[in-house]
Structures are given as C-alpha cells and as structure tokens.
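Hi L., both proteins are below.
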Amino acid sequence: MVSSVTEQVGFAIDQNRCMGCKACQTACKDKNELDVGQLWRRVTEATGGGYYEQGRALHNSVYAFWTTMACNHCEHPKCVEGCPTEAMRKRSEDGIVFVDKTQCIGCQLCIRSCPYGAPQYNPKEGKVGKCNYCIDEVGKDPVCVAACPVRAIHSGKLEDLKKKYGVINQTMGIPDPSITSPSLVITPHKDAIEGFC
C-alpha cells in the first residue's frame, strides 16, 4: 500500500444538479466495454417523504435525488489492503487505485473489502475490474465527467475540489467516510443532509 501520495485526485458530486439521466454510467460502461451486469459507475435514486394534512389542506414532503458513485480512490483503500497478490494498487503520483490484471487471481477479496462496491468480478475473464479514473485518457477528464450534461460530476486534484466545492464527503445512502477516507467531495441535496447529520 502507498503511504504518501504526491497530489491525490478525486471526484466532486453535486446532488442538486444530478437529474438521474445515467449518462455518466452509460459513458463508463461504453468506454470500458463492460458486460451486462457490470457497472463501474452507478447512479442510484433515493425517494421518500409523504403527505400530511394541515387544516383542510393536504401538503407533501415528497423528495427524490440521485447519487452517482464509482471508485473513490480512497486514502485508505480497503480493496488494496485486502488483495493478497498486490494486483490492486494505489499510485503514488496521484492516488488512483487500479487493478493490475496480470496479477489478479480472481479471488474477489477486494470486492468483499470495499464498502462502496467498486471492484467487480468479470466471470468471462476470471478477474476483477473497476474504475481507474480513465488513466489511459491522458490530459482529459474521465468519461463520466465529460458525459454529464448538467455538470454534476467534476474531477481534479482533491485539494482544489475541496476549495471549490467544500469538504463534505458523505450523503445519505453511502458508507461512513471514516472507513476509507474517500477522495470525494459531495454537495448534498437538501433532503440527503437529514439522512446523515
């Protein structure tokens, strides 16, 4: 495991902008030629609330918002810690967590270790794959960022993202950030804040 990273990269997600179109999810799936059932970026919907009477009127507290999630290239990635062959690695120059498929034996311990469900087993290959921040697209944004029509996803150096979007890395429905210290900044939807504060 890498102990120090020169300049950690990460993602910033604005739940107030996300409309659940899944363009990011589709772009990632297309670029990486993922089979049915394989998603390295997933968009999930949260709904809730209801209706209540106030006098003779009926009011609602209904809400819906979406969360787009991929590998968070964590400061303390459990998938790297759980890998017995060191196929799962964290780069020292930018903190990107990736899989060296030449060393992956398909044991899936990384899958069981990751609280975000980022690593995924491909039965055709007998190996694990996951978001690698599109490291082959040098000088470009990851495809999920480029595909978002409302600019709900941003990428870049984590410190720059924190300065621009804040330091919250938690929203309703995702694991406690103290587990792995994800390289993630979230602008939560107003109805998501109540779920974790």
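That was the first. Here is the second:
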Amino acid sequence: MLVIEPPVIHRLRALLDELEYDAVQRTLRPHYFVWPFPPLDTFKKLLLYLPERLRVTYEVLLLGQPVQRSRLEKLWGGDAVDDLLSLGLLVLRDRHEVQSDNYSIVSYLGRYFVVSVNPYYPTRRDPDAPVYIGPDSLTLAAALPASGRWQRCLDLCTGSGIQAIMLAASAQQVAAVEIHELAANAARFNAALNHVEDRVEVLQGSLYDPVPAGRYDLIVSNPPFLPVPVGVHHALSGHGGEDGLSILGPLLEGIPPRLSNGGEALIYAEGVGDGEGPFVRQRLQEMADVHHLDVHLLLVSRLTIKSTLILKAASLVQLQRPSSELAQWRDLYQRLGATHTYNYLLRLRRGEGVVVQFPAFDPHREERGIELQPGTVLKPR
C-alpha cells in the first residue's frame, strides 16, 4: 500500500514537473483528453525518440516495466529512487531490479494520479485495477463546471480522486468517498501529490455512510454502473449489480436531501435501454416529480447490444477471462429487455420537475466501426 508522507510525495511531484511528465504526454498520448493510457505498441515506438531519462521514466512509471536499479539511480539520482521505494510506489524485484508495485502515474491537465496499471497491459498484476481511472473518469472531469466558487463539494466513488482534485481548484472543501481501501489510500496520496491535501478529505466507506452532515453546492460521481451477471467476476470499480443500479440507485436517491438550494449534481454513468434511451430515465422522472428536480440527461454514446457484446468479447480475451462468460452477458441483456447500451451525463438541479434528454452521439458511429482504443477499430458484421 502507498505510504502517505507529504514531504516525500512533494519531492516526487517536483521530479515529475522537472521531467515535463504531463507536457510530453499531451504530445505523445493519442486522444489525451479521452484515454488516460496510451496504446502500448504505438507509445513504445514513440518512446524510442525521447531522451533516455524521460523514456525510462515512462517505461517505469506509466507502463509498469522493470528496470535496473543502478540505471534508474543514474538517471534520477539515488535519493529519488529511495523516495519512491519508501512511498511504496516502487518495489525491489531482486537486488538489482525495481518495478512499480502495480501502479502507474497518469497525468491530466497538469495533475498527476497514481492509479493501477492498465489491466490491458502485460505488466499488470491485478486485472481488477482497484485504483481505477478510465475514459469515463476523464469525460466527467472535462464536464465539471468551468467556473464557480463552491464552499462544499462531495465526490462519491472517488476512485483515484481525480474529480475531487480537479474540484479543489475552486472549492474550499471537498469530501471524497471511496469504499475500496487501496483506492481510498491512493486518493489521499494523489491529493498530496497535487498539493490539495488541505482541501480534499478522503473518507472510506459506502456512499453517504461516512459523509459529514449538511448540504453540498456540488455533488459529483462516476459510480460503478455496469450490469453484471450473477456469478461472473468483475472489478468492484465497475460492478453495478444485475441491473446496473445497485450503486447508482441509492446514490441518486441520496442527492435531494444533500443538495443546497442553488446546488447541482453531475454524474457520469452507463446503462442499458431501448432505442429511445436508457431505462434509468423512468426512475429519473419519478425523482424529478417527487423532489422537484430538473434533470438533464446527456447521451454521450449509444451502441446496440450486438456491438456491446463484440466489445465485451474483446475485453474477455484481453483480460484472459473464460469466453463462456459472453453467453451470460448476452442472456442478461435479454432478461433486462435491452436493445442498446448508453453512456450518459446527468445534471440535476432544484427546479420544476422537468426531465430533458439530449442525444449527443454520432448515429453513424457503428458504420465506421467500434473503437476499442485509439487505433484499434472493429466493425460489426
């Protein structure tokens, strides 16, 4: 587990800044604002053109590759290597070699986040990636209000802490809640890494259980939202129960009593539905009627169940999961009566009980193919 020693963490921050760790990623990482991890083969080729010091840094801290300790000490200095070992970010493989302890450092808009190694990289040692960051994390971060001064903010299911840390630039106080011990610890580490530990308090627990009483000006969340068949193993960061609402449902219900009069909630999620939209819209309408909320449902993307299963099949192969699980996912979608899956952003404010749905996806996306990651496209047959 990562060790929270702010002075040492701040020295790591200084090293990353000196190396222009984020600036170089903005240039070399395809789809920087959407995908937190670069496609491995392409990125490795680009690294060959970098100076050795920066190339090895990315190999160790982003890709999770092992390296000779003496080589790293020559490039960083012995004190820097000792710092990362003392923080638990690096571990000794043997007397001569070091490697990240299943952690990567991902950058976004000048911030740094220690997260689990991409589960699709061969260097990963835990496919469940307990300290999660993904395209949905960056999509929500980009959707955060661009301006505003908030006294109290709440980030539920904080994961790496990315939303709480982004909000700390405009908020006096941010409470960030995470149930997984390793993720909660990493979020505290990341708050120190970004010099906002004085404004971000990470609380370990389930949803609202550890949350201080009172109302919040802004509530954000990127919760586990995937419908998962009973008996199929899935990472906690994405497991939303059979209908995908085991976390999202109580999260939504807890918003009205905790939202300040002029407050707003912003949630990124995925769900199943029909050709008209995700099924969750029915629950949202009931909430809007009862609690006098105005709800904006922005549909970011839509895929047919057939295309969703194609993506699922590719994921099972990459994660070395049994191919027989695909039939369980197909049967689940049939039981739910789903014809499509949606990614969406929810905005909730106090108002008159109006629910508005905005389709913001490209209806011709599937004709061009489904992007597994930048540069990897599948076309449904």
